[in-house]
Write a structure and sequence with these properties.
Layout: E1 17-23, E2 32-38, E3 42-47, E4 50-55, E5 59-64, E6 70-74, H1 82-88
Antiparallel strand pairs: 1-2, 1-5, 2-3, 3-4, 5-6
Length: 95
């Protein structure tokens, strides 16, 4: 299944360009780069010469898909272990 705006939360996020659009910590707003790590609560965004850790909850992210589409997602929709999030959100035939 290709990545599209509707299925983004069910896909692997590592490797996608991302920008922090809003966050409960104003110092994090505007961070942009490539998502290089993901845990249950955090995204690691490579920005310049360092990796910034951004909490998923309390933030909104804009993702640039391989098709060129830009999708904004609430971080609260992404809070879960990556394997569980990609498997159990939506209509997975593997449940």
């Amino acid at each position: 299944m290709p990545v599209n705006p509707k299925t983004l939360p069910r896909h692997e996020l590592v490797g996608l360009p991302v920008e922090v659009r809003s966050a409960s910590n104003p110092d994090l707003v505007g961070i942009r780069g490539e998502c290089v790590t993901e845990t249950t609560q955090m995204l690691g965004i490579e920005s310049g010469d360092r990796v910034r850790q951004v909490p998923k909850a309390g933030a909104d992210f804009s993702w640039t898909l391989p098709s060129g589409d830009v999708v904004t997602t609430a971080g609260s929709r992404l809070v879960a272990r990556p394997p569980r999030r990609t498997e159990h959100r939506g209509d997975s035939k593997w449940r």
